[in-house]
Design brief:
There is one protein chain. Helices cover about 0% and strands about 55% of the residues. The chain is an all-beta fold. The chain has one domain. The strands form three sheets. The chain has a four-stranded antiparallel β-sheet with strand order 2-1-5-6, with no helix packed on it. The protein starts with a strand and ends in a 5-residue tail after the last strand.
């Protein structure tokens, strides 16, 4: 089983080739190819590499599939006995990536 752990948008994700991944909004257009270079761990067949903190020369290649929005989150502020209440909604902009390939040590 081939997989990697990548960091983007301040979060870490375990990815494998062919999977779809929703990450925080990235620049680009639908169909653009990306190279995620913040790779923390790579596992290919019998090899297991761990970076400190990131592996040099390792990268994950992905393609932008679409730009969905996350679920609606509600923030409600309330102060008792003061007549103060505010309701604010928020939907995070996301980027859906299709993982194409995992390259360790610059090879792909």
């Amino acid at each position: 089983m081939e997989y990697a752990v990548v960091s983007t948008g301040g979060k870490q994700y375990k990815v494998s080739p062919g999977m779809l991944l929703d990450v925080e909004k990235l620049d680009g257009q639908v169909g653009d190819k990306l190279q995620l270079q913040e790779v923390l761990v790579v596992r290919k067949e019998d090899q297991f590499q761990v970076g400190r903190p990131a592996l040099k020369g390792a990268s994950v290649f992905a393609e932008i599939v679409q730009f969905p929005k996350g679920p609606k989150l509600i923030s409600f502020k309330f102060k008792r006995r003061k007549g103060y209440h505010r309701k604010v909604g928020h939907r995070q902009k996301l980027t859906r990536l299709k993982i194409l390939e995992i390259a360790s040590n610059g090879t792909h």
